[in-house]
Amino acid sequence: MKVLTLKQPWATLVAEGIKKYEFRSWKTNYRGKILIHAGTGIDKKELEKFRDLNLEFPSKKY
Fold it and tell me: Cβ–Cβ contacts within 10 Å for residue 49, how many?
């Protein structure tokens, strides 16, 4: 199975079906189910825009 790593809040938004598309610069012929991995990076500026959705944006803090 393929895995797509995204920063938060994008990982949660994709997993919840709120963000339906994720564009990348490379082409792929793969179509099917994928796993969404929330990387350690957080886009804090964008995270604030989605706080009112009352979603959990999990991230591992060291």
Answer: 10
